[in-house]
Automatic annotation (TrEMBL):
A cellular component annotation (GO) from this entry: ciliary base
Name recorded for this polypeptide: Chromosome 2 SCAF14997, whole genome shotgun sequence
Region (Disordered), start-end ranges: 1-23, 41-66
GO annotation terms (biological process): inner ear receptor cell stereocilium organization; intraciliary transport; kidney development; non-motile cilium assembly
GO molecular function, one term: kinesin binding
Length: 93
């Protein structure tokens, strides 16, 4: 009878996931993900950037900017239109 190193199926071929003795696994997916066997390591994985410390303080809003004045006027107009609609629906016009 013949001796086999890898597990074989009923047809005599090695199974898909069977590892033959002495065969190293391919490193294609591992190296593509950024892993290496060297001891020197690059920067640690930090997707949120927490190692850099807190963010600088936010910039203060300038109330005198034209955009802010326009927003305030738009809000006043909206409030007046809403008040007018409410008065119309209740008959107080």
């Amino acid at each position: 009878m013949k001796s086999r190193n890898a597990l074989a199926s009923s047809m005599g071929r090695p199974l898909t996931g069977a590892v033959q003795a002495g065969a190293a696994r391919p490193m294609t997916a591992v190296s593509a993900a950024g892993y290496s066997s060297s001891l020197t390591r690059g920067p640690a994985f930090d997707p949120l950037g927490q190692a850099r410390g807190p963010a600088p303080p936010l910039e203060e809003k300038n109330e005198d900017a034209p955009e802010e004045k326009i927003k305030m006027l738009e809000k006043k107009v909206y409030d007046l239109v809403l008040e007018s609609c409410m008065a119309q629906s209740s008959g107080n016009f």
